[in-house]
UniProtKB/TrEMBL annotation:
The keyword Hydrolase applies. This is Alpha/beta fold hydrolase. PANTHER family: HOMOSERINE O-ACETYLTRANSFERASE. The keyword Amino-acid biosynthesis does not apply. Keywords: Hydrolase, Transferase. The lineage of its organism: Bacteria, Pseudomonadati, Bacteroidota, Flavobacteriia, Flavobacteriales. InterPro entries: AB_hydrolase_1 (IPR000073), AB_hydrolase_fold (IPR029058), HAT_MetX-like (IPR008220). Residues 36-158 form the AB hydrolase-1 domain. It comes from Flavobacterium aureirubrum. One of its GO terms (molecular function) is hydrolase activity.
């Protein structure tokens, strides 16, 4: 069930003030306060419905699954402005005013409202994983396990460049959501994945790859607001835990969390090489940092496809035996 918290008197990173921002969330599994809390952050076009009917991570979250709702409280916030509340008045038009850090602060305010001061894990893929990085830097002593998947702690030039292309399409196309999605889907997959799947086949003289892309554009247009897409795309450009702070290593050495970096070997958006560099840097000074890599032909979207591999990576972290000594403060 979708619930709401009103976040009051928020100061954004750019200095502007917001008197009230609605934060919508869902929780699954055990009641809040009765079990270790797992915060699941959604990706660009995702939402808080992570498990159950139409849950986008049903393969990993649920009864007797890798993240077991019999033993955890699963909490998922909607990024404000993503439109999942179904009320057009809660959309954000001044999207350039917001940063990923603002969203991470809002999530922490939501946790404070719910009287959750200690989190077993914060996990997320893509944009959601970047929010997980930021949440951990904001509160370095409150998260036991940081699990960023198919993401990075900063936006590379490659990411920034593609955000610009998406923003140009969204602001100049006659069919902005559909057209932007055509471009985005090719960032989320790989040539090998596309070629193997479609093999130049046609239906009624139209290439199946063309139909596939057009259908993805139509589906997103039918369930996503333009202002939401603009905001989510913009937030990708603002990923940077070091912005106006110390250098990366000094920052991360302050956090107590176990860090489980999960990459996709063929990710064309948040490339694996960047995460390998991060791991190599961190392991010089931290013992509780781990690197995992999903092997897939599917590229960035593998974190939504290769569930068996991801489950194998996550199982030791969420193993119920490890929870015996955990106390939810």
């Amino acid at each position: 069930m979708l619930q709401k918290i009103d976040i009051l008197n928020l100061k954004l990173e750019n200095g502007k003030h917001k008197s009230s921002i609605p934060l919508y969330y869902q929780y699954f599994g055990q009641p809040i306060g009765n079990a270790p809390v797992v915060v699941v952050n959604h990706a660009l076009t995702g939402n808080s419905n992570v498990t159950g009917e139409n849950g986008w991570w049903n393969d990993l979250i649920g009864e007797n699954k890798t993240i077991d709702t019999n033993h955890f409280t699963i909490l998922a916030f909607n990024i404000p402005g993503n439109g999942y509340d179904g009320k057009l008045k809660n959309l954000i038009s001044d999207y350039h005013d917001y940063t990923l850090r603002d969203m991470a602060k809002i999530f922490w305010k939501g946790l404070d409202f719910l009287q959750i001061s200690n989190v077993f894990a914060v996990i997320g893929g893509s944009l959601g994983g970047a929010i997980a990085w930021e949440m951990t830097i904001l509160e370095p002593n409150k998260i036991q396990n940081l699990i960023p998947i198919a993401t990075d702690w900063k936006a590379t030039d490659w990411v920034i460049a593609n955000v610009l292309i998406q923003d140009q399409i969204l602001n100049n196309s006659d069919d902005p959501i559909a057209d932007a999605r055509l471009h985005a889907m090719l960032l989320y997959r790989t040539p090998k994945s596309i070629n193997l799947r479609f093999q130049r086949e046609k239906t009624n003289e139209v290439f199946q790859i063309e139909n596939w892309l057009i259908n993805h554009g139509i589906k997103l247009k039918n369930r996503f607001q333009l202002s939401s897409y603009k905001l989510m795309n913009h937030l990708l450009k603002t990923i940077d835990i070091t912005y106006k702070r110390k250098d990366f290593l000094a920052l991360v050495n302050e956090i107590r969390s176990n860090i489980h970096i999960v990459s996709v070997d063929t990710d064309y958006f948040f490339i694996a090489d960047e995460n390998r560099k991060t791991y190599q840097l961190l392991k010089r000074t931290k013992e509780n940092v781990f690197y995992h890599e999903i092997v897939s032909i599917h590229g960035h979207d593998a974190f939504l496809i290769e569930f068996k591999q991801l489950a194998q990576i996550l199982e030791p972290i969420f193993n119920k035996q490890k929870l015996q000594n955990y106390v939810n403060a």
